[in-house]
Amino acid sequence: MPGLLPRPLPGGRARAEGAGAGAAQPAGGDVTRAAGVRCRAGQAGSEGGESGTSSRGKMWLKPEEVLLKNALKLWVTQKSSGYFILQRRRGHGDGGGRFTGRLVGALDAVLDSNARVAPFRILLQVPGSQVYSAIACGELLNGSEVYWAIAIGATAEEINQHWEWLEQNLLHTLSVFDNKEDIVSFVKGKVKALIAEETSSKLAEQEEDPEKFREALVKFDSRFNFPEAEKLITYYSCCCWKGKVPRQGWLYLSINHLCFYSFFLGKELKLIIPWVEVQKLERTSNVFMTDTVRVTTGNKERDFSTFLNIAEAFRIMEQLADVTLRRLLDNEIFELDPGLQDPTQITKRDLEARAQNEFFRAFFRLPRKEKLHEVVDCSLWTPFSRCHTAGRMYTSDSYICFASKENGCCTVIIPLREVISIEKMEDTSLLPNPIIVSIRSKTAFQFIELKDRDTLVENLLQRLKEVNSGNLLHCNNLQNNNQNSLAFGSTCTLGDDEPVCLGTEASQGKERSECEKENNYLLNAEALRSDFHQSGMSGLDFGKSREQIKESLWDDHFVEYGRTVCMFRTEKIRKLVAMGIPESLRGKLWLLFSDAETDLASHPGYYVHLVEASMGKCCMATEEIERDLHRSLPEHPAFQSETGIAALRRVLTAYAHRNPKIGYCQSMNILTSVLLLYAKEEEAFWLLVAVCERMLPDYFNHRVIGAQVDQSVFEELIKEQLPELAEHMKDLTALASISLSWFLTLFLSIMPLESAVNVVDCFFYDGIKAIFQLGLAILEANAVDLCNSKDDGQALMILSRFLEHVKNEESPLPPIGNHHAFFSDDHEPSPVTEIANLIHDSYEKFGDHSVEQIEHMRYKHRIRVLQSHEDTTKQNVLRVVIPEVSILPEDLEELYDLFKREHLIRCYWESSRSAVSERHDPSRPYAEQYRIDAQQFASLYRLLSPWTCGEHTELLAHRTFRLLDENRDRLVEFKGLASCLDVMYNGEMNEKIKLLYKLHIPPALTENERDSQSPLQNPLLSTSRPLVIGKSNGDAVDYQKQLKQMLKDLAKEKDTKTEKELPKMSQREFIQFCKTLYSMFHEDPEENDLYQAIATVTTLLLQIGEVGQRSISLGSGSDEFTEDLQPSETSASDQNAVFTDTVKTPHKDSQPSPVTEGDWTVSFEHILASLLTEQSLVNFFEKPLELKPKLENAKLNQYSLRTNGMSCQSRSEHAKPSTQ
């Protein structure tokens, strides 16, 4: 099984960065010219990080100038390309036939080892060489050609490795440069970077925190200025392609971002890509490079190439993207994986270990909680082949597993709870470093060739002790039982002739039966099949005989390979499974293959307790279960009686109680029904646990992410395995929607039951791989008809008819129709397909995909699926908001992206991860999935609001936030931000003034917002100034008359007004309102006119408020009021009526005024009418405003402003305590 799991890297530490290697500098500097090569292996290796070498002698060199004049006698050219030359030193490898070769060889032999010249080298040609075109294999013309030595090697094999790397990674790239000087600069920079990376890699193997990594961290901080919480994981030297031009630089991978920095030919390039915005991550190739990493975000693609180790770099990028997307976009997974909760603790070693854990659990289909501890090369004695089989041992918290290096040869899963002893044997030449693992079924496993055996055994014994102490009751029961009682009952594979039938431990069975007697809910002691399959079995002698043959084959297999969960799993057992498991063994083998047997034995009484705790309780899950109970295999007699329905209810309800995160999902009822047919009730429960939590991860949750990921993987497999069908059906989403039920119900809902159970057999043995390959076999069998189909509906009918006619002629069961099938078309007879043949074809034609390949595809497609959900959320939010605002849809879409990014930027570096969980919940309504707090809102306000008020902007932003936070949860949704900006940019003047007015009364304005520098202290706002202003042309405007008319109009308007009135504004609030207006006019082209106008309006409003205050204090009929308002003749009754209505007696539908009688107040109507009297103010609020330029600027500056702000905040918090 080569390549199953990546071997652990030594130390798993990050690569370090060499000084000066990140930026390629123009040719020049300290250059040496010599009549021959001036770089000897010893010198190059002692230049302190200027060369990279291995223990065998191959190395990259710090580019050193070489003059080839008169050098032909020493070197022979063996290979040449457009830019590189590979040379061999005379006297090496040619048998020394010539005198020159013998002379040079003798000279090299007598030299000191430090001065000895490496026999092979690679040269880069310098631009301007006079004899460039005359370079030929074997000879060079004399002249003044100048080259650069970039690599040396001790053997032809070593130097050829460098040559191949140059051909694959650099040769095609260099053709895009316009001049040769750029080529030399680029190659020199790349070679220096490779040297630094190789050197630092060796340092990382020896040092826990190498100095080089600290230097790289300093550069990362200075170049990107992230807060301290943005942890750097690792970095690589590579090229980033900009169009057809590569930019050599450094790729930094941190917990939340992919960053690239380059300084090339005097130009600096910085690139920041948040992992959460990555939509596709893949290894691909372009016209210039054979192997690149392509990162796709939105509509942009970025290619990175020329990595020293592209496989490692891509693996780390894949892990980081997966971790971040799950943590920030998929809360269901985030909560299930506690290792991701603190991203600041993630390291490169952790990511590599996580990748190994994922593959380990997927390959052996173990619980998520299992943590891989050791991966050790070894050999296992396999009795069936009478030899030791080479492979690897994997040890975790509760398991010892083995997988042969030859794929499919042998795998073994040993739960530690089954282990009796682990012993070291005598080390001999035939059995080096052996250990014996003995299990309860009288079987022993012999492992040899184990490195560091003592430490391994010590660790295993410690974990064995922990497992046994965790199940003390189980251990005591074992001690009290007869020594011959077997844990799972097995036939001994090492010579035990006593047959023991499959079954659970006797003591546990007794304990469970006692619990069941005490329980009010009587559990089924047998599988439902045994009760309901007896009828109709007569007359099926042929089926019985086939069953007896299968049972005999399985019995023979058990004798040789074992019959417990620890059995040897080989290609032979896979063939037996593909033929169909006998009815009598099916349920027990499902338990063994899925390892549900271990869960069952480890949790005696657990299911009974769940049933007691869950039955009788009503919730959404139980209501859905009740609705689906009678839809579960209604054609089967087992579920036409209360016995089967009650058992199904108990299992589904108990699981919903065990795992409320999943609860109950449709299709679980169909699967559980079939499990109950072949397993006891408690066994069926643990089989359901194994399927939902291990074998089909993330299938049964709110968004069925796992099923959608596998649908996307299935599409890729169709393109790969059935290209003609994929070419015909351009849009494979139709096939994906048809096949979704195949994955969710394991074909149980669309095949006859007697055929579908054979599919379930393969699934429990091979996992999801069996469903993928069977799906491909079905499509291939119908490929011709599908290619001729006219639409999706016809394709659906073709597949449905085919699946309805998949029969199992060998089944002893009476045929049972499928109630869940899509169609039942009796008009067109369809050929019958035998399920055994279909399964056989699936293994033969499509069974070559390994678990590792499938898991890698799942990583890639999980990104696409999660981003697809994000797009759906976005479109649904926009669909709701677009009709309610006047902002253009494309601008609103960009605004949503900024809003979401603002939320995520804050999530990256929050100390409390619970905040992320609260704010992004995929199960919430679309509009509530992303919300921002006051600080995030203020950042967006500064970037987008047209009402810039200098230092006053921050205060205004927080008031706007409080106004929009209607439910007082300190969070604002996107709709609130969009509606607010819509008023600012597209609203009428009265709407804008109303918004400003609301921002200066509660709840937007709070009691603690007091400003000592009140603008009312300015003489410009004195109420003693006359209300007659002289204009430049000498005319005068009497504002007393305007005020009189304004108040009359307001009084008339209020009589017909039905809209709910705004509360009155107090003097303190009015002061803040005036200050905001003054701040908004600052640096406006009409600043002076606006200041003059607002001074006039403010004075007018102050007098209105004072007059209203006196009218309340002195009574509505006061003569003083009339005299103060105007010296000329005015009807006092009109004035009194106005103020009585506007100040003292609010509208019956209005909110009660927060001010008391006698206080200074002014209403929104007063302010609006006053502002309308000044044309310059009207022009200011009605001038057209464009949102698009603000959006473009925000996209460019949002990240830098937020990171700079948070970085400064982080540093200030470390420097001194908070003053707030």
From TrEMBL:
Residue ranges occupied by any Rab-GAP TBC domain in the UniProt entry: 580-767
Cited SUPFAM superfamilies: EF-hand, Ypt/Rab-GAP domain of gyp1p
MF annotations from Gene Ontology: GTPase activator activity
GO terms, biological process: system process
Role: May act as a GTPase-activating protein for Rab family protein(s).
PANTHER family in alphabetical order: PROTEIN VASCULAR ASSOCIATED DEATH 1, CHLOROPLASTIC, TBC1 DOMAIN FAMILY MEMBER 8 ISOFORM X1
Protein known as: TBC1 domain family member 8
Organism annotation: Cyanoderma ruficeps
